[in-house]
């Protein structure tokens, strides 16, 4: 399931990149679209690694790191939408605490891949 989530999210970086461009923190050097595509590739690579038993453990650890690395983009999105319409504010602020269980899920996949 985690691989499917990552594959879907990664694909959307290429299907609707503007959504992701808008949440790239401005402090990052370079073009927003480059970061959007790079994070999409990272998600697709993590999905592929998790899908293959031989690389599942490494892929799951990479996924946990990726989930932590993209957290600043989620914070930026929440900040940008702090005055937006209520349904969207609830969504973007609700995403923030979900990052911890996603990281936990990835770590559990890594642990299970070890057979422990």
TrEMBL record:
Organism the protein comes from: Actinomadura vinacea
Endpoints of the signal sequence: none
Record-annotated Methylamine utilisation protein MauE domain positions: 2-70
UniProt name for this protein: DoxX family protein
Location in or out of the cell: Membrane
Keywords: Membrane, Transmembrane, Transmembrane helix
Phylogenetic lineage: Bacteria, Bacillati, Actinomycetota, Actinomycetes, Streptosporangiales
Domain of life: Bacteria
InterPro entries with a match to the protein in the record: Methylamine_util_MauE
Topology of the protein relative to the lipid bilayer: Multi-pass membrane protein
Predominant location category: membrane
Entry-linked Pfam families: MauE
């Amino acid at each position: 399931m985690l691989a499917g989530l990552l594959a879907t999210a990664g694909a959307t970086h290429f299907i609707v990149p503007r959504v992701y461009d808008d949440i790239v923190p401005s402090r990052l050097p370079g073009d927003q679209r480059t970061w959007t595509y790079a994070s999409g590739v990272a998600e697709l690579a993590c999905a592929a690694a998790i899908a293959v038993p031989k690389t599942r453990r490494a892929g799951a650890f990479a996924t946990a790191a990726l989930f932590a690395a993209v957290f600043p983009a989620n914070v930026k999105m929440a900040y940008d939408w702090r005055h937006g319409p209520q349904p969207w504010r609830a969504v973007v602020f609700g995403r923030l605490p979900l990052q911890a269980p996603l990281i936990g899920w990835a770590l559990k996949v890594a642990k299970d891949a070890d057979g422990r």
